[in-house]
Amino acid sequence: MRQQALLTVTIAAIAALSACGNTSNADVKRALKDVNVIDESNLNEVMLNAADPNEAVDYFARTSAQNPERIELKRGLAKSLTRAGKPVQASAVWAEIVNSPEATNDDRVAYADALIRANEWSKAKAVLDSIPPTHETYDRYRLEAMVADANKQWSKADSFYETALGLTTQPGGVLNNWGFSKLSRGDFASAERLFAEALTYDPNNFTIKNNLVLARAAQRKYDLPLIQMTQEEQAQLLYTAALTAIKQGDVTIGRGLLEDAVETSPRHFEQAARALEALNKTVSKG
Predict the structure, then answer these.
(1) H helices present in 19-166, as ranges
(2) Which of 46, 70, 67 is nearest to 56 (CA)?
(3) Can you tell me the distance from the alpha carbon of 238 to that of 259, in angstroms, rounded to the nearest whole number?
(4) What is the mean pLDDT of each run of 10 residues along the chain (286 residues)?
(5) How many whole angstroms separate alpha carbon 212 and alpha carbon 219?
(6) Which of 234, 162, 168, 232 is nearest to 202 (CA)?
(7) In which region does residue 138 sit, left (phi positive, over 0), alpha (psi from -120 to 50) or beta (all else)?
(8) What is the reported pLDDT for 143?
(9) Backbone angles phi, psi at 151, to 5 degrees
(10) Is 93 helix (H, G, I), strand (E, B) or coil?
C-alpha cells in the first residue's frame, strides 16, 4: 500500500512536469529526487519503529556510511543500537552526534540514556548537567531521577520523579522506577503504593506485579494482591513471595507458598519444586 501511494506521487509529479512544455531534464531529476526523499523518510520511520532492531542497525549503518553528513541517519543508527541492546555502541554514536553543530538537547538526553544503559553513570550525570535547566522533558527528568537514585540522593530523586510524572500521560514506567527506589531504601509501604498505582496504567506488566509482591512480602504481607494475573504469573508471584518469606525467617509460610506455586503452575514449575525440595532437606537435617 505504501509503495502504491509513493508510485502515485511519482507519477503525479512527472505528469505535472510533463504538462509544462518548457520543463528541462534538470526539473524532472529534481522532482524525482524530492520523491526519493519522501520515500526514504518513510522507510527510516518504518525501520525505527517496526523492523527487527538488528536489521535496522544494518540499514542505518549502511545508509549513514553512504551519507556521513546527514545527522538524522546517525540518530537512527544510535536509536536502533539501543533497541538492539547495544548501549555501548549506541553511546559512541550519540557522542559523535552531540559533538555536531546540529546537535539538540534531545540528542544529549538520548546520549545520557545510552550511557546509563551502558552503566556509565558519572558520564551520564555530566551530560545531563550540560543540558540547560529550561529543557524540561519527561525523558530528561526520568534520567535525572535515576542518576540521583544511583548516587543515593533521595530527596533529589523524589523531586525528579515527581516532576517526570507531571510531564507524561503514560506514567507506569516512572512510577515503577520510583517504587523500586523506595524499595531499595527500605520504604516498603511507599513502594507498594507506587507499584499499585503503576499497575493501573500498565496492568499487564509482570515486572511491576513482581515488584508489588516483593514490596508487600517485605512487610510480611504474603497473600497475593487482587490484581489481574494469569495462572502462570500467579505461580511465579507465589514463588517470589515464598523466597522473601524464607529469607525473612518465615520458613513455614515460605514452604506453603512454594507448595502453592508448584500446584498452581499450568506446567511443572521446576524452580519452585527445586526450592521446595532443598528446603525440605534442610529442615529434615536440622
Answers:
(1) 25-49, 53-66, 71-83, 87-98, 105-117, 121-129, 138-150, 154-165
(2) 46
(3) 9
(4) 41 42 52 46 75 86 91 94 96 97 97 97 97 97 97 96 96 96 97 98 97 97 95 94 95 93 80 78 59
(5) 11
(6) 168
(7) alpha
(8) 97
(9) -95, 5
(10) helix
C-alpha distances out from residue 206 to 8, 85, 100, 152, 236, Å: 46, 20, 40, 26, 10
Question: In this structure, are residues 169 and 193 in contact, taking their beta carbons and an 8 Å threshold?
Answer: no
The one-letter amino acid at 128: L
Looking at residue 230, what is its pLDDT? 93
The C-alpha cell that represents 101 in the structure block: 553543530
Residue type at 100 in one-letter notation: S
Give the DSSP letter string of 27-43. HHHHHHHHHHHHHHHHH
CB-based contacts of 145, cutoff 8 Å, min separation 6? 156, 157, 160, 161, 164, 174, 177, 178, 181
Query: Phi-psi category of 49—alpha, beta or left, where left has phi over 0 and alpha has psi -120 to 50?
Result: alpha
| Residue partners of 5: CB distance under 8 A and separation at least 6 | none
Three cell numbers at 12? Answer: 503525479
